[in-house]
Specification:
single chain, CHAD domain, Hypothetical Protein Pfu-838710-001, 2 domains, 17 helices, about 15% strand, YgiF, CYTH_domain, Inorganic triphosphatase YgiF, CYTH-like_dom_sf
Length: about 550
């Protein structure tokens, strides 16, 4: 199922010769480019408010059906109202505003005009800061907003350079409902977004929190999901408009910092870590679905593994059923991404690295042609999984668990006591358990079989992600860098054994699908090349293990 050109979800009723597997994911994460979190506690600039909103994408038929869904009509506070909205979005020629993750628009509703500056999303995927002011017409009135309170670059926006970039024309049916202890404005939007000669349809439902807890947004969305086909909208109208105007494709995002600190309790640490994981997952859905850049599938897979690690780390002492259910769903989705990631790395990295060696008499052209169909099928499977209703249900459930702090439920007194403890106490126990598990699995390292080495590698992966999550709780940067560096190096080399196993599985599939002598010759060259790698790295692997077991865990005083 092809990705739609308008950017919406489609709807339906190392080492040379190393190969495609999770070790490639590890390598890009050794020195992770962790993005800083938004400051949830930062004071609001004068005139600024916070918008808390969940966007759901759908099709026109479903939109009309959900207008009269029982979950809406039963909880409605009035008959609702219909408005026609027209908005013009402005920016400089070099997209100064867009590069800040912000948008500046003037919207007309009837005879009223409202100018709005929306800032980059905060730590929560639902929240953005915004400034609004009434203006006399559709033209910009920069002095109507207290932009000086925001500092650069907004305080010095060059008004003479601001020009329309795109417009939206929306027919909005608004219904206010009381649901889940909250008051929510439900906006059923249908219309168009246009930039010059280019245009795309808009068909979505916006759930905006007016009062109450944000968890109610996810609960209402889950109820709507039972009535029709919906997908979480990960782009605002502004982001879609900029993409349409510039012709850019969705890009992958690396992990976000958790923002935890030494003063946090375990409960606060769980919230912040899961928030960061959720942001990482949501930020990569479109890039993974689009499939043009292999980094999209890779980063979504990394995000899901980090989420699973966080859940596994916390549920040892806080065994909430809500966390366990999320872990299973994340595992299922991550597994579905595996084949696409394997084919991507094999096509873009493994073959290219060996091809650069210029092996005499070996031509990789036929082999590269033979892997096109299975690679395409693997990405088609990814797209199908990402638009499946079970994926939407998982993402909505993840948001609900975070916003409702559902791990506080269905646990005993001891676990509740853990939640109130300083996060550093919990972190030390959790990391120590993982470290000891790794040492136990690596006992008598020289005699470990490939399957046992693979299990050790997975434990080290969990240990590294856990250490990255909890590192801000400790003021031992030098010790932490040394520990993570040695662990990462060990993971690199351990990955080679698993690389070979994964590569051979892919090569067998290609071997059965082609009779080309050149392709079979290339397959033999790759097999021999990686067999040599295993022999050459055996001693390096033993040295790396010894260095790892000698390093002091940075969380120990």
């Amino acid at each position: 199922m092809a990705f739609q050109a308008d950017g919406r979800w489609p709807l339906r009723g190392g080492k040379t010769g190393s190969c495609p597997d999770e070790r490639r994911d590890d390598m890009s994460e050794h020195t992770p480019e962790i993005q800083p979190p938004g400051d949830m506690d930062a004071p609001e600039p004068a005139g600024a408010g916070r918008e808390v909103e969940l966007k759901l994408l759908t099709d026109p038929a479903t939109l009309q059906r959900l207008l009269t869904a029982a979950v809406v009509t039963r909880h409605a506070t009035s008959k609702g109202v219909v408005r026609r909205l027209e908005a013009t979005y402005y920016d400089t020629p070099d997209a100064l505003i867009a590069r800040q993750g912000a948008s500046l628009r003037v919207r007309r509703s009837g005879k009223q005009f409202v100018q709005t500056l929306k800032l980059a999303p905060l730590e929560s995927v639902l929240q953005r800061r915004e400034m609004e002011a009434r203006v006399p017409d559709i033209a910009l009135q920069l002095d109507a907003l207290p932009l000086s309170d925001l500092g650069a670059p907004f305080a010095t926006l060059p008004g003479s350079e601001l020009a329309p970039v795109f417009i939206t024309k929306i027919r909005r049916h608004i219904q206010v409902v009381e649901f889940g202890g909250a008051v929510i404005e439900v906006a059923f939007d249908e219309g168009t977004l246009s930039a010059g000669e280019k245009a795309e349809a808009v068909c979505e439902i916006e759930l905006e929190l007016k009062t109450g807890e944000a968890g109610a947004l996810y609960e209402l969305a889950l109820s709507l999901l039972e009535q029709g086909t919906l997908h979480i909208g990960v782009q605002s109208k502004a982001e879609r408009g900029y993409a349409l105007a510039s012709g850019t494709l969705p890009t992958a995002e690396k992990a976000f910092a958790t923002g935890i600190g030494p003063a946090d309790t375990t409960d606060e640490a769980i919230t912040k870590v899961l928030n960061a994981c959720q942001r990482h997952v949501m930020a990569n859905l479109m890039a993974a679905h689009h499939g043009r850049d292999p980094e999209g599938v890779h980063q979504l897979r990394v995000a899901l593994r980090r989420l699973r690690t966080a859940i596994s780390l916390f549920k040892k002492e806080v065994p909430a059923s809500a966390l366990q259910a999320l872990g299973l769903d994340a595992k299922r989705l991550a597994s579905a991404l595996g084949p696409a990631r394997n084919w991507d790395v094999f096509a873009t990295t493994t073959i290219a690295e060996i091809e650069r060696a210029n092996l005499p008499g070996v031509d990789f052209a036929e082999l590269k042609s033979a892997i096109v169909p299975p690679r395409a099928r693997s990405h088609q499977a990814v797209r199908a999984d990402l638009v499946d209703l079970e994926c939407t249900r998982f993402l909505l459930s993840l948001g609900r668990v975070i916003e409702r702090r559902s791990w506080r439920n269905d646990i005993g007194i001891e676990a509740l006591a853990v939640l109130t403890q300083p996060a550093r106490e919990f972190a030390g126990r959790g990391l120590t358990l993982l470290h000891r598990k790794a040492l136990k699995q690596g006992h008598n390292f020289r005699k470990l079989r490939p399957t046992a080495r693979h299990e050790l590698r997975l434990t080290l992966k969990k240990l590294r992600y856990g250490a990255e999550f909890l590192l801000p709780l400790y003021d031992r940067d030098g010790a932490a860098r040394k520990y993570l560096k040695r662990m990462s190096r060990l993971q690199d080399i351990l990955g080679i054994d698993n690389d070979i196993t994964t590569t051979q599985s892919l090569l067998r599939e290609v071997e059965e699908s082609t009779s080309s002598p050149q392709a079979h010759k290339a397959i033999g060259a790759i097999t021999g090349w990686q067999g040599r790698d295993r022999l050459e790295t055996a001693e390096a692997l033993r040295r790396s293990w010894r260095k790892f077991i000698d390093v002091e865990p940075f969380w120990l005083d």
